């Protein structure tokens, strides 16, 4: 049953909503898992980060898998692994089993991310690409916000929350299987499986930016509920407030980067947004009204997402773009795997509920520095940033 290309985007977006919710299920249920499924905050951060660890190893081979087995097979495999990993996590009796479930889910999420992006690019051209890709990008934070809003309503029953996440991914698998048609295996085209010498520096710098930006977002949504509970809010109130981060990014995500490009100052807009995100996290940690600072963080997070990806496209030649995006996403997944556990470690070390938020602000400050490295490298090549 074919729904057409826009229908395919809708189903792919739904699958990414389930992926965002699955990523966030551990953070949304975090305080309930401490002392049960996990021993401490560092272990909780490890569960959060493990979801992304698989992408470190999947990103580079994903292109080969798509060429060898076709879009539909890889996409179904990805969403199917998400569902399987969700079931393993829901059944997990201990931390080791939970870690295995998160790793399996993470492999699936990485395959969905890369296959879904390729399928959108295959189906659209011109101005329609931005709108279709914007729908894809919006789905992930929407899923995060949905998990933060719904799961705390379950009370103390964290196991049911894990089963809901697994069920959502299973539903996405069924819908993808019934509706999305993909391209078959294709002969690999001749692409440069390496980068030109002048491409490494700006791409690595942007990989640091992309990793730090996304890790800061993951830490913010993952640890803010526990911070708000420590401030005296109920779990339901804390989850509802933290969900504002995921929902507030939605209005500007499809168009924020395009507006910045139209203004002719994409780098300035990106830097100002990142600095604004630092300020929003610092203000939240200092006790400013969360109903104001958390939506501000989400709104400011919208334009950099598409801008950073546009900057990466400018850093790469057409011949090396496929391999370069593999490098880019490898750094992205590496950051998501390592930085949230580090934020949890800082929380354990200091005993301060606000410590992960301030750590995430530090990640963003590093991103601003890395953007400077990228801009300098591009100026050295005589290219516009």
Automatic annotation (TrEMBL):
Short name of one Pfam family: MFS_1
Entry's transmembrane regions: 12-35, 41-66, 73-93, 99-121, 128-150, 162-182, 203-228, 240-260, 267-286, 292-311, 323-343, 355-377
Main location: membrane
Keywords, alphabetical: Cell membrane, Membrane, Transmembrane, Transmembrane helix
Ranges for domain Major facilitator superfamily (MFS) profile: 8-379
InterPro entries on file: MFS, MFS_dom, MFS_Efflux_Transporters, MFS_trans_sf
Superkingdom as given in the UniProt entry: Bacteria
GO CC field: plasma membrane
Keyword Protein transport: no
Topology of the protein relative to the lipid bilayer: Multi-pass membrane protein
GO MF entries: transmembrane transporter activity
Cellular location(s): Cell membrane
UniProt-recorded name of the protein: MFS transporter
Organism whose genome encodes this protein: Neoroseomonas oryzicola
